[in-house]
Amino acid sequence: RDLREELSTLHGNCEKLEKSKCQLKEEVAKLQRHLETNMVDHSQIEEYKREVDERAGQEIRQKLQEVNLFLQAQAASQDRLEHIRASHHASLRNQLKDRIRDLECELDRIKSTQPDSTFPKECVQVEVEKYKELYLEEVKTRRSLAKKL
């Protein structure tokens, strides 16, 4: 009788172990499916990450190329502007030199046409002041134009 009771207890334990074994098999299968799904998701995520990194790198290279082209165009424009400024300054300088030469020629002409006796010192002084003012006005105009440039 004791052996039968023990046998029935062992059968009960065996049934419980069988149920537990089936549950564990189901859980293992479920975990294996979950692991496979996650591995596929992980590889897809890695591929997507690589694609995003590659696209971002291409965009950055493209933007850098655009910036370089813009900076080159800006440098070329700056060079042209400097050249224009230099030629304008040279032109202004030449115009002022011509104006001074013209004024000096006119002063010489006036001096040579007027005899010393009829050309008193006061008249000469007035003429000198007049030409001095004209010269200062030319200088002022030149500086103003240079500032505008």
Question: If you had to describe this structure to a student in words, what would you say it looks like?
Answer:
- The chain has helices at about 1-115, 120-149.
- The chain is an all-alpha fold.
- The chain folds into 2 domains: about 5-115; about 115-149.
- The longest helix is centred in the middle third of the chain and has 112 residues, at about 1-115.
- It is rod-shaped and about 165 Å long.
- It starts with a helix and ends with a helix.
- This is ANR26 protein.
- It comes from Elachura formosa (spotted wren-babbler).
Helix content: over 70%
Strand percentage, roughly?
under 5%
Question: How confident overall, as mean pLDDT?
Answer: 89
The poorly predicted ranges are none
Helix vs. strand class: mainly alpha
Number of helices: 2
- Summarize the helix and strand pattern as letters: HH
Termini Cα gap: 122 Å
What sort of overall outline do the alpha carbons produce when their principal axes are compared?
Answer: rod-shaped
